[in-house]
Amino acid sequence: MHSKQTFPHKWDWELFILVFILTGIGLMMVFSSSFVLAQKQYGDPYFFLKRQGFYAFIGIILMLGMIRYIPYQLYQRLTYPLLCLAIIGLILVFVPGIGRKINNATRWIRVGHFSLQPSEFAKIAFISYLAAAVSREEKIKQFSVGILPTLIIYSIFAGLLLAEPDMGTVLLLASLTFCMLFLGGAKIKHLFIITCPGIAGLFYLLIKAPYRLKRLLAFLHPENDPLGVGYVILHSKLAFASGGFWGQGLGASQQKLFYLPEPFTDYIFSILGEELGFWGVAFITFLFALLIWRGINIARGARDLFGFYLALGITLWLSMQTIIHMGVCLGLLPPKGITLPFISYGGSALLANFMAIGILENIHAQGQR
Amino acid sequence: MPLNQELILESWKRHLKLLRFIIVIAFLIIVFRLLLLQLINGKKYAYLAENNHIEVESITPPRGIIYDRNGVTLATNQPCFCLLLYPQKLPRHQPKVLKQYAKFLAPILKKTPEEVEGLLKDSLKYPLRPIYLKKKLSWTEVTAIETRSYFYSALRITVTPLRFYPLHSLGAHLLGYVGLITAEQLKENVFPGAEPTDFVGQIGIEKAWQRELAGYKGKRYLEVDALGRVLRVIKEIPPVPGNNIYLSIDIHLQKFAERLLRHKKGAIVALNPHNGEVLALVSSPNFDPNLFVQGLDPKTWQKLVKNPYHPLENRVTAGLYPPGSIFKVVTALAGLQTKVITPRDLIYCNGTFPLGNHIFRCWKKGGHGWVDIKKALIQSCDVFFYQLGIDLGIEKIASYASQCGFGHPTGIGIKEADGLIPTPDWKWQTRRKRWHKGDTVNVAIGQGAVLVTPLQIAQFFVALANGGNIYRPQVVLKITSPTGKVIREIKPTLKAKLPISKRNLKIINQALAGVMNNPLGTGYKARSDHILIAGKTGTAQVISLPKKKSNKVSPFYQDHAWFAGFAPVKNPQIVVVVLIEHGGHGGATAAPLARDLIEAYLDGQK
Question: What total of structural domains would you count in chain B?
């Protein structure tokens, strides 16, 4: 296989159309949930829409370029350089002058007029590493050469992400690692061994700062503390309730907007529920389910083991983020700052999502029926 | 590979099945939850959402109080009933109701219903920006609105501590004023956390010390029903009032100085020579800062802005004037210090000074005869300084002027101008013209392009009076907490030393005393009968005119009158600078005012 080879013919149209519909809905929802705040903060109701539209445009170009010109095997060869790049990106966040702090979280780096969130791109690097690691099936059965390196690299990522702090991504990567190792055929005994310290660490964190536990469990009974930790959860649920079956109509959830922090990122699903109602949310949920279905099918059709695991990892990532975001908005899971792929506002996340689709489509293009 | 993969896939089919199963279950849970929330239990939540919700309201803290040095209140707060309009609650699709609003509000706002309707429609452009419809509501208005609040939920009456300046225009230029935050300030986030209904310091001390004065907002959590009526207060976080500020101003002296400048255009500034504290700062004409708090109607605003006498400008810090003869002190200082001239050197003044094909003239037609540096300062002989200027050269004059604090801001902390000391480089850069000796001659007597602020002159004279210490003019003495505890005391800042030796300073100060006390001195007529004053008069030409009798000249072309001085000569207690725009001769118009102020201050201290 030559690196100059292009893959123009075998596109998974179903996946394409799904992604475009979701991005379209995302743009619409970003506008309808942000214009009030944008007007208030920037005097321009289209502020967030313009930015999101710009990133969507760049993302689509990036995706098409990746499908045509970047064979996914490259990620296997470049696993370690990519990992280094990701780690450098995560470190740059703390460099004064380059890093940016918003709402007490140092997650961004400044590039010209724009801010990038290295953790979003780090997810892709990490997933390709996981895919590369588990595709060497002879090693994955051994703890020292198969499991331990993965654990070390995860710890580096987790350490940097905790310092930002970005607890959501730390947990996301942990679940991804676990799932990939499991699917990759790691021994159950080994999986058990690596899970134990994690759970112990979690317990330690919770006991050390009891407020965390309180916050973690508040989602079960938000009514008990409507002004404290339960505030957001309660209002998120109220948003769904006031949507009913038909929804309030686009842009009509003005009143509730100010109750939900970050209505166009972490709680966009709630706004969706309020404005589009049950039928709209159900439809979008269905679209996401289809997207994940396609992802698994692409994995099955991959031409080699790395492609199989890479497609699987990406699909897992997207599905986890979707399910966690929805669960948080619906009050089923404790609040964690997790965005909804293709829908939530966030340039880096959108770019990373499109890159993920680019990789999936490339795996499909090279795959076999 | 492919064969291998087939095997792998075969063996992992179960895993994939499990994965699919888990994902399907997850989505089913989500859909089930949606059904529950939106359709089955929906009514309960929807009722909660629509009928009672929680609103968070900011509580504005009272702004810090500003006192003079003796604790006299200069700026305080008055709780006022204000009428706020929340446009997002207006029934925008019901023109009838909108008309009702207009009809109801018209008598309160003293406008026609049509005007009010236009205003309401305008407000809908920015539905989330509450608008002050009226400040200082009367009791009858409050009751009228409150009793009808059920029908007009977009209106709300708040009790807001509004800024109030009890002495009105007194000290207005220094104090500045607070005004409603502007759209630009909101947009650029000049004041983090600010809301559209906030008042912020817009100029003067109010602006410079905004962060100390503002305090921190409190919060009130309200349970509100569907119509926006408050059902109960759930929780309240009280606001933290702003800190108080003590200014160095002595309000009695300030009042006296303002009275001296009444009906005149000009500036007076009085400083304490020992530390640079500002005792009085007057710019005339002035304005009433209360106007800005209540909100200016466009007419009054235009009147203030378009007034040819610029009442809003702080002439002391931001007014730029040619210093005229006052600048001769700088030239003399440079001459003595560079030893270009000694106290014994004499120059002959016959009233004219030919240079090239141009003749510069002394203000005294017949000339002063033989003059030394003291006599030249006392009688303000132009020819002496023309010659000294030529001997010094522009570079040295400019360098010394800059070391004396001219040409750069004093650092007083409120808006001020830099001033200008021209140099050949400057002339080439701005006008693309070469520097001539005639320019140097003009600069030597404070004419030409030289521009200073009255505060810069005062800063210079503080240094002359205290033996050579250039202090940063200081207006804030201390900051206290709302309960009166001193949080911070501000010490005088010594910026630099005057570039002059003790001996030469003594010569200059003797000459300055002579200006007021020698019968030939330019300020002799304005001397005090019981206090020894030292000073320098100045008459700055606004535009060079063909020789005409001065009483025929239009007031806009008349010379500016200057006086700068300190008293008593031994152990000075006060430095005073007076500027009268188009006032004519400094000795005749400016010096007497300075004398009166000095007498008032020193006699009052006894």
Answer: 2
